[in-house]
Specification:
The structure is a single chain. By secondary structure, the chain is mainly β. It is about 10% helix and about 40% strand. It has six helices and 36 strands. The strands form nine sheets. It has a six-stranded antiparallel beta barrel. The radius of gyration is 32 Å and the shape is globular. The N and C termini lie far apart (about 85 Å).
């Protein structure tokens, strides 16, 4: 007995991608078919298909011209049919079936279909790329303050039989919701669900799991995100440090003269080259002036998310080697010159997306380089009076948070530095808290992220940032290029002489090691005992005060 035949597409031009169900043909339906026999599926113009049995082999060109899909017969046991319930079914010119199920009963073996790659019409699913397998991934999580809505978006690739995606949140409480898929056929689609009733979730870690089932197989993805509670209504959002630009931002921890065991300076910082981070001068010095002699150590935890202060997280811990200030005092025309650069002990490589922030200098009245009215963001690690949860040992957790707003104007700086463009006045929706100092003020242009300043705090009723003005740009580029980085970038004015640079210092490795995280190994010591110190001054709002 001859083996069953395979009905298989022969690539006419009106086929665009591969999909759908495979059925086993009854032996009697295909017995006696010869190699020159074809099945023609004709598009009737009303989404109906005619299945005809004929002896003439039509050319691909003829099939295209007459809006037909030509099927060739080969050895094999299967037939692939695209979205069969959408079409009318005929055999020859005499037999008509009311539905595919009638056709299936007579010509196809019993049993459930299984998924393989088949073929469909271009006009039905133009531009869809066929999935290679069942898969699902978290695309975006919109979350922030505990008790607020949590919006989750997932990207799903399926082969046509998946019905829904299940979204599950878990903390001390589990919340699970199925969401119906929109697409009829196989392909990729984005699915979104918003959890509105989140009052039972507390500040801290929340586990999100998304899953999809198809033909006995399950695909899932899991991601941990954070929630916070603060004394003020900030409106921050959780930042996903697995992706740009948030994977270029980290938490800065300093040990300074005068701090007791278990006391550390905390701020934020961000990559401006593979080997350098930018932060505020006051993050390193904790005052309005300094020469760095009282700074013992600087540690940088890149992309920290849901971890305690002194813990590594996937090899994200880097140590400061050299430190530089733009000026030895920055209080008179603050926030102008409140900038510092830390040269790291090793180069950071392998980030997804950008390797570091591109640079965008700006100035008042400088045409396209005037940021007034432009949308901007900051992202970093605010901590003062912010509850982000604790781990099982009672140690405080830290997540990265972000917010967006705009530049409302410029703040006058030192005449020989920022001049009329020394600082950025930000919109009220960009307030931060202690620990956010050193966060990048960034914008996105043509798919790239540019930093244009450093979030510094608030002045009066306004959140403010140190601006990357022309003087700051040339100062930073002088330091970075002196250490062999970004040599293809040009100075705006000219390279600064060493005498024009602010204070700089190489941190003693042995001295830093003696003071770094002292007390962390003592029995009974918990990281929850850590105190955060910052600037305390009458012209600066409270959130700089030590907690």
């Amino acid at each position: 007995m001859r083996s069953p035949i395979m009905i298989q597409a022969i690539s006419p031009g009106n086929l665009s991608y591969e999909v759908d169900y495979t059925y086993t043909l009854r032996q009697e339906f295909i017995t006696g078919a010869g190699p020159d026999r074809v099945f023609n599926i004709l598009d009737t113009g009303d989404n109906g298909l005619h299945l005809e049995v004929g002896l003439e082999v039509l050319s691909v060109e003829y099939a295209e011209a007459h809006n037909q899909m030509l099927l060739d017969i080969n050895e094999g046991p299967k037939v692939t049919i695209f979205d069969p319930e959408e079409y009318d079914w005929f055999v020859g010119n005499e037999r008509e079936f009311e539905s595919f199920s009638g056709f299936r009963e007579e010509f196809i073996d019993p049993g459930e279909p299984f998924i393989v790659q088949g073929n469909g019409f271009r006009g039905d699913f133009e531009g869809i790329t066929p999935p290679e397998d069942l898969s699902i991934a978290v695309e975006e999580i919109d979350a922030g303050e505990a008790g607020s809505e949590i919006k989750v978006t997932a990207q799903v690739s399926h082969l046509g039989q998946a019905d829904s995606v299940t979204f599950t949140l878990e903390q001390d409480y589990v919340l699970s919701e199925p969401v119906t898929l929109n697409g009829k056929g196989p392909g990729q689609e984005s699915v979104t669900y918003t959890f509105k009733d989140t009052g039972d979730f507390n500040p801290g870690k929340v586990a999100l799991t998304i899953s999809v089932e198809e033909d006995g197989h399950t695909a899932e993805d899991t991601k941990i995100f954070g929630l916070y509670v603060a004394e003020a209504d900030y409106g921050w959002k959780w930042a996903d440090t697995d992706h740009s630009p948030f994977n270029m931002i980290g938490q800065v921890v300093t040990k300074n003269e005068g701090l007791e065991d278990g006391e550390y300076g905390i701020g934020s910082g961000f990559l401006i080259s593979p080997g350098h981070i930018m932060t505020n001068a006051h993050v390193l010095e904790g005052s309005w002036e300094g020469d760095l002699t009282g700074l013992y150590s600087v540690d940088f935890f890149l992309g920290r998310s849901g971890e305690t202060l002194l813990a590594d997280q996937q090899d994200n811990h880097f140590q400061g080697d050299k430190v530089y200030l733009q000026k030895d005092q920055w209080g008179s025309f603050w926030p102008d010159t409140d900038m510092a650069i830390v040269s790291l002990d090793s180069e950071i490589e392998g980030l997804s997306g950008q390797a570091y922030f591109d640079w965008f200098w700006s100035a008042l009245g400088a045409g396209d380089r005037d940021l007034t009215g432009e949308p901007v963001f900051w992202a970093g690690y605010p901590v003062n009076a912010v509850n982000q949860g604790k781990d099982v040992e009672g140690d405080k957790l830290f997540f990265q948070w972000m917010t967006e707003g705009q530049v409302d104007g410029y703040i006058t700086g030192y005449e020989s530095y920022g001049a009329e463009s020394g600082g950025l006045k930000l919109s009220p929706d960009m307030f931060g808290a202690g620990g956010a100092s050193g966060s990048p003020i960034f914008l996105k242009d043509d798919g790239s992220y540019y930093y244009g300043g450093v979030f510094a705090g608030s002045k009066g009723a306004d959140p403010v940032a140190t601006n990357l003005d022309a003087a700051a740009y040339d100062w930073a580029l002088t330091i970075v290029q002196k250490e062999g980085y970004l040599l293809d970038m040009d100075f705006l004015d000219s390279s600064l002489a060493h005498a024009d640079l602010g204070p700089g210092r190489t941190l003693s490795e042995s001295y830093a090691a003696a003071h770094r995280f002292k007390g962390a190994g003592i029995d009974g010591y918990h990281q929850s005992d850590i105190q955060v110190h910052g600037i305390r001054d009458i012209i600066v709002d409270e959130f700089y005060a030590a907690t």
